[in-house]
Amino acid sequence: MKTQPLPLDGITVVAVEQAVAAPFATRQLADLGARVIKIERPDGGDFARGYDTAARGLASHFVWCNRGKESLAVDLKDPRGLAVVRRLVADADVFVQNLAQGAAARLGLDAATLCAAHPRLVAVDISGYGAHGPYAHKRAYDMLVQCEAGLVSVTGTPDRPVKAGVPAADVAAAMYAFSGVLAALLRRAATGLGGPVEISMLEALAEWMGHPLHHRMHGGETPARTGLAHPVIAPYDAFGTADGEQLLLSVQNDREWRRLTEQVLEKPELADDPEFATNTARTANRERTDAVVAAALAALTTEEAVSRLDAADIACARLNTVADVAAHPQLAARDRWREVGSPVGPLRAMLPPITLPGGPEPRMGAVPALGEHTETLLRAAGMTDEQTAELRRDGVIA
Prior knowledge:
Blueprint: E1 12-16, H1 21-31, E2 35-40, H2 60-65, E3 69-73, H3 79-90, E4 94-97, H4 103-107, H5 111-117, E5 122-127, H6 142-148, E6 156-157, E7 160-161, H7 168-191, E8 195-200, H8 201-208, H9 210-217, E9 236-240, E10 246-250, H10 254-263, H11 279-284, H12 286-298, H13 302-311, E11 315-318, H14 322-326, H15 329-333, E12 337-340, E13 347-350, H16 374-380, H17 385-393
Parallel strand pairs: 1-2, 1-4, 2-3, 4-5, 5-8
Antiparallel strand pairs: 6-7, 9-10, 10-11, 12-13
Helix pairs in contact: 1-7, 7-8
């Protein structure tokens, strides 16, 4: 049987991108076979290149979001550099940008302008708060949007709100941009027309606030911050084990409570005790419920506790560290780790979550050096070596 190509083979993406939201979106496209040309500033490139040096001298954010791309370092403020990008866009299928609000329009690189000139182009504008409204021109870093979208208000402990430990607003916007591109390409296949795609970080993350937002809008109370506990289910929290680790368990119904009391706590009398028999009673008596569970698990090692909980079919999870995730046995068993090239040699990376059984693996290309593909791309765009040398001498390219 002939192997199917990657879904986006033959698709060319040009991206004027920085930080996380747009780069993470276009990395998904690259993994699925698209050619992604990343436009960067000659004087340092995408500023995410300078966030840290944790990946053997490279920035961890940049390594995560930019594998499989070609880097063209060009000054868009110079008309000659802007002309190069416009030439590339004319032959592209997709254009993505997440410049500061208004910057792309001043360059003529906003989605509306580009789609008017190139009807088959799918052009994506990613912004913090959208193209209009009172917040349109506010700075919109990930943590700021987490605050504006209310995520911080429902995350943390009763005493202290906290931000998510990953850039949730950036990732939300990236994934809606990714799916928006796929939807627009499907529409183009049917109609022959591309069109603009607009993504707002605030709107993306507000959508992810679905449960607390709808709960509050439709008459409920704002969900309380409860740390690892669940506001309306008990027991549902993390508990310490005899070897000093933490284990989260969740009892979803009264049948599970019975199994927990009999097979894990070894206190079967609690199954019918009116103070514990129903979730309503357990939640009302949360401190006593948690104390009973905590005492039982504190006498067991983590392995013993997990074994009992699994045997009783009670949902549980270890509170893994980031290092634990990198060594997670399930990821290893499913062969999810690969190596990608980079300017500092091979780096470990995880296969993307989209798995297409029977087809080729995602195209996990190398992390590019700044301007690594500049001359190749300019030559392919029809520029002579003399013209390229002039642009380099004038600092227009790197």
